[in-house]
Q: What sequence folds into this?
């Protein structure tokens, strides 16, 4: 949809008091209220001087001050939400829809289709969001694929154990961040993993009626190095923006992702195979537009696609990617959404990395020590702690959070990785059982703190 | 400089009686700005652990250690004890919202009249720290801290309102440490398979639920 007139001024244009982007076009960002990605996309829009609206499932407290910038949509009511977006486009025109992460990709495809905006086909997005359908599409396209089977959470785990080959990986169909993913080397381990995943899934609401929480995918375990690809699709053409190595072994029993480093240290020929496999997977799924994030394994037999999602890398990890004159990944995504042209896609630094700080044990996060020392490690760009002291933390496979993120930049990937490890070693996370946490008082020297209310000025 | 009412002195001395520690006084400081004014801290001081950079005064039978940086903002404050609530109340005649800079006054008016009433309904508030070189530096408090959607509130709400109303302001900078951790809304809500960020799990839940 095109804007009615080039000189139209949206309320949100006035955010920076600078002239709007010469195109005057804007983007609707779909984001769930629990996203980590809001800041990165909004900051990117600010840098591009690109007006945006935010569609989220919760009403925002200041929406009344900027009605053109806010929309409430229910990601689980796809038809209803699409109708709301179409109506919103009539009231406050925009030119493209971008989902900041998994939650909104299906709705973005549906609404874009309704509005005639370039986007991925709905069926392609639905396939990419479901690990079983992804596996089917890749297999049908003749790509390397492990044995795979789908089970119901109601299936008998002992009987299922007899139907699979070992070693295998038990995983949910739609959870992310390796949550619920477990390796089993024999039937006994399989039954334990199966029942544990059923327990994890039983605590998950069924938001839109799909059966993603009721089913379990079992795949043959693929040995090898794991890598990730970040790319942008434009009219079906893939532009690879980065290949990340994951230098920590991911052999199970859980698959906790920690370090991503780019550029890849794999030989050029292997990197070419990685890119080729990503292109084949994109084509197999039918994706055509926008960001993609692919995860795969590389071994002597070649490249094995694990999953390919129609969205950018999640969490705060995108901060490890900077392009040209320090442009963010999200800037490229927004530029692509509006049809380009893209800014520079050359890396801003020779190498960079991110470490998702894993949760070592369950308990209450009581104290974090060594942050300043970690920040002083050469090559460390930023340390971002994301869980507050006092919060209960749960490791994989049940948990879905990290303690924070460490970012590095260096002259080569070896140093980028080494900086991450040194910084992580400088950090100490004090995690205690709840009963001990209640009495833990880090750095408290006063006898006690008196509760005092505040009364400013006379009545 | 600071007064302690007789009732408050009596209550504090009562609290001190019977304690084994050698308490030599009480430290008072401005710890921040809240939605209605300054936020204060009060804590007992142990012998041998007297704080530095303080002004020491006597208030009745109590020694009061006032942070040097808080002296002006606490001038004329009165500490009272409210039996009905069982807590202490600091009546401070000073306001953090009185600005000499006309631009800061305008930004403060936007926060007071347009933004904070709405944000307060969701347990948060926005405080102006200073205006410098046409940039408004703010801090978010309460439920805003650590909220996954705080950037939306900031960019799509606070910035828009301030810049629209005070055109001289060129940008708004959030200085909040969102990992500081006191956000009561940080706890995860019930899991939903369609509500899972791909890396790093869930961001803090929004306090701005309907």
A:
């Amino acid at each position: 949809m095109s804007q009615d007139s080039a000189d139209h001024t949206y309320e949100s244009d006035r955010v920076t008091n600078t002239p709007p982007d010469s195109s005057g076009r804007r983007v609707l960002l779909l984001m769930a209220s629990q996203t980590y990605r809001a800041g990165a996309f909004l900051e990117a829009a600010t840098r591009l001087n690109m007006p945006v609206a935010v569609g989220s499932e919760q009403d925002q407290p200041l929406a009344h001050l900027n009605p053109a910038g806010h929309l409430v949509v229910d990601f689980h009511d796809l038809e209803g939400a699409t109708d709301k977006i179409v109506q919103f486009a009539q009231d406050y025109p925009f030119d493209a829809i971008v989902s900041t992460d998994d939650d909104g990709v299906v709705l973005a495809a549906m609404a874009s289709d309704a509005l005639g905006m370039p986007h991925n086909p709905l069926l392609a997005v639905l396939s990419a969001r479901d690990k079983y359908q992804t596996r089917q599409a890749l297999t049908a396209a003749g790509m390397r694929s492990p044995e795979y089977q789908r089970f119901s959470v109601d299936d008998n785990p002992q009987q299922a154990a007899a139907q699979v080959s070992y070693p295998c990986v038990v995983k949910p169909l739609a959870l992310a961040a390796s949550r619920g993913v477990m390796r089993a080397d024999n039937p006994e381990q399989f039954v334990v993993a199966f029942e544990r995943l059923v327990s994890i899934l039983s605590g998950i609401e069924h938001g839109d009626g799909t059966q993603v929480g009721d089913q379990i995918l079992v795949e043959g375990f693929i040995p090898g190095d794991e890598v990730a690809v970040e790319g942008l699709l434009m009219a079906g053409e893939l532009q690879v923006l980065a290949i990340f190595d994951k230098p920590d072994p991911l052999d199970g029993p859980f698959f906790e992702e920690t370090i991503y480093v780019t550029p890849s240290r794999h030989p050029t020929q292997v990197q070419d195979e990685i890119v080729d496999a990503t292109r084949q997977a994109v084509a197999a799924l039918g994706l055509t537009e926008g960001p993609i994030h692919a995860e795969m394994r590389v071994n002597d037999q070649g490249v094995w696609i694990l999953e390919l999602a129609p969205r950018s890398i999640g969490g705060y990890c995108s901060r490890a990617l900077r392009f040209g004159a320090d442009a963010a990944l999200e800037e490229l995504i927004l530029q692509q959404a509006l049809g380009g042209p893209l800014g520079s896609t050359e890396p801003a630094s020779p190498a960079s990395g991110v470490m998702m700080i894993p949760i070592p044990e369950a308990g209450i996060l009581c104290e974090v020590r060594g942050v300043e020392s970690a920040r002083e490690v050469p090559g460390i760009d930023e340390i971002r702690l994301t869980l507050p002291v006092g919060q209960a933390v749960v490791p994989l496979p049940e948990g879905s959070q990290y303690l924070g993120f460490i970012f590095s930049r260096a002259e080569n990937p070896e140093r980028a990785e080494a900086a991450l490890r040194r910084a992580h070693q400088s950090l100490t996370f004090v995690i205690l059982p709840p009963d001990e946490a209640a009495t833990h008082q880090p750095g408290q020297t006063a006898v006690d703190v008196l509760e005092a209310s505040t009364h400013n000025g006379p009545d | 400089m600071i007064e302690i009412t007789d009732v408050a002195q009596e209550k504090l001395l009562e609290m001190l009686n019977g304690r084994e520690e050698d308490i030599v006084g009480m430290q008072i400081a401005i710890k921040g700005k809240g939605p209605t004014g300054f936020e204060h801290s009060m804590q007992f001081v142990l012998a041998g652990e007297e704080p530095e950079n303080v002004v020491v005064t006597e208030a009745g039978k109590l020694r009061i250690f006032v942070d040097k940086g808080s002296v002006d903002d606490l001038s004329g404050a009165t500490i009272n004890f409210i039996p009905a609530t069982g807590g202490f109340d600091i009546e401070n005649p000073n306001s953090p919202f009185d600005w000499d800079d006309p631009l800061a006054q305008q930004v403060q008016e936007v926060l007071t009249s347009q933004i904070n009433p709405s944000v307060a309904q969701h347990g948060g508030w926005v405080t102006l720290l200073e205006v410098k070189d046409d940039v408004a530096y703010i801090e978010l408090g309460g439920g805003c801290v650590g909220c996954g959607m705080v950037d939306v509130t900031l960019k799509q709400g606070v910035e828009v309102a301030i810049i629209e109303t005070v055109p001289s302001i060129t940008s708004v900078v959030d200085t909040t440490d969102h990992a500081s951790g006191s956000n009561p809304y940080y706890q995860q809500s019930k899991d939903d398979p369609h509500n899972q960020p791909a890396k790093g799990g869930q961001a803090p839940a929004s306090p701005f639920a309907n």
